[in-house]
Amino acid sequence: MNIVYDSEHFSVLAYPSCQGFELVDKDSRRMLFLHGIEAWSFRAAIDGIPEAARDIETIDAFLDEYCSGVATPIVVH
Predict the structure, then answer these.
(1) Cβ(10)–Cβ(59) under 8 Å?
(2) Which domain does 39 fall in, by range?
(3) Which of 6, 2, 49, 48 is nearest to 21 (CA)?
(4) Is the pTM of this model over 0.70?
């Protein structure tokens, strides 16, 4: 596991061995795990953000939209 992005609101963890990403929304306490074609599409979408626009606010807004409606609540047992 590698932390590839971490802000006050979101974290993105990479799992190279299973070619996946875990997106964690810290505020809403939800997460989304992507692997296979979903992980590839996510990486392509991140790479599509122009270098000049890659700031915390832009990345956080992108992650919020990406997780919206599909991320699941984090439950601790």
Answers:
(1) yes
(2) 2-73
(3) 2
(4) yes
Share of the chain above pLDDT 90, in %: 74
Q: Residue 45 is encoded by which pair of tokens?
A: 């979408």
- How long is the chain? 77
Extended beta strands in the chain, E state: 2-6, 10-15, 20-25, 30-35, 72-73
Q: pLDDT (tens digit, 9 = 90+) per residue, 44-69?
A: 999 999 999 999 999 999 999 888 87
Confidence of residue 75 (pLDDT cuts 50, 70, 90): low
| Of 48, 40, 44, 45, nearest in space to 21 by CA | 40
Exposure on the CB side of residue 73, measured as CA atoms within 13 A = 3
Kindly state the helix (H) or strand (E) to which residue 59 belongs, with its residue range: helix 56-67
Contact 26, 71 (CB under 8 A): no
